[in-house]
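Board notes (copied after class):
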Amino acid sequence: SSSSSSSSAPSEAVHESCAAPGAAFSSRNEAAVATGPSTVSPPAQAIGIGNAVARAAPDSGVASAASSGTQQPRQTPEQHKEVPEQAAAWAAELQLTAQYPQVKCAAMPLRSDPAITYKSAALRLAAHRDAALRAAGLVALARCLPADPAVAKPPGSANDAIEDGAVGEAQVIVLPDGRVLSRQALLVEATRCAPTTAAAYAMLASDLPASGTVQLFVERKLSRTELLCEAIRYGPTVVKYYSDLAELIPYGSTTVNGRTISRAELYTEVLKREPNNTAAYIKLGNYLMGRSHETVTVNGRHLTRHKLYIEAIRCEPADAAAYYNLADCLERSEAVMLADGQVLNARELLMKAIERSPRNPDMYLAFARKLSKGEQITL
């Protein structure tokens, strides 16, 4: 399993591994709270939406482009077709299929209309007279493309969306009106068509480097944090936006919908919407590391660090991280009762963690720290 260094700050979590005694690590299923992709930290930069030089195949609607200059593409017969009445149903389905990998979603047929693909439907919606449907089409088209090279993570990073040979030139979409737009330009255009398009702000935030900005308004550049605040403003029910924002403010607070909110409060917002989100409970427990007597309020309940981990185990008994971190809360001879009535001490908790993650060396190191000098055990 992969591992990363533990932070000295109580709010930082270590994935799959604990580099130091007593450090908490995050759930394997952390994707459930959808933490943001890996980022680099170049100097802050405003990223524009300039069009690129297109080398478009006349029947594809997609082109590979260099990073500067423009060229008017040739339009295809399909791009001239009138959007049918089921446009709203198409838009809803495109939003549902957002979970699919980029390389598969473009050519995937719609369930509601197998004769048309995801990308074809998106192109037609992008030409719709209704601004909200047009924005939905633009966002769907952006999902068909990798992040722009100018803002993408470096090749080889865990979440790198750039294929070999594509770094240095952007992938673009040829719209029915002849414009040639990259992924970022499509998302910016979506916010201009319909400023309440939450997914566009969230995708822009995920593509930006740590200190990058994007020019959305004439006199305003938005950072990743500000973009996610906009996403929450217009999509307050989407759990991913809260968890992504929480990862950007580990030690401080930010303003969301006029309210100052901390990282812990963002995870409580996740649990309001998903009461059984294991990773959110673990993140909150990690947030209280070193403050064992403090509590956080989750859906009206005041929970200490060890109770948060107990809740995580209740939600997902197969998650090794919760057992490991709960054991870290206990003294060698101390025991705790789980939600199912089991009473386990620190060693027994660590044994369960090892059963669930037998390749993680930090599980064994933690177990060793719970043993007396010269003591031996049978695994």
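Comment from the instructor: Residues 1-25, 27-83, 152-169 have pLDDT under 50 and may be disordered. The CA atoms of residues 147 and 207 lie 6 Å apart.
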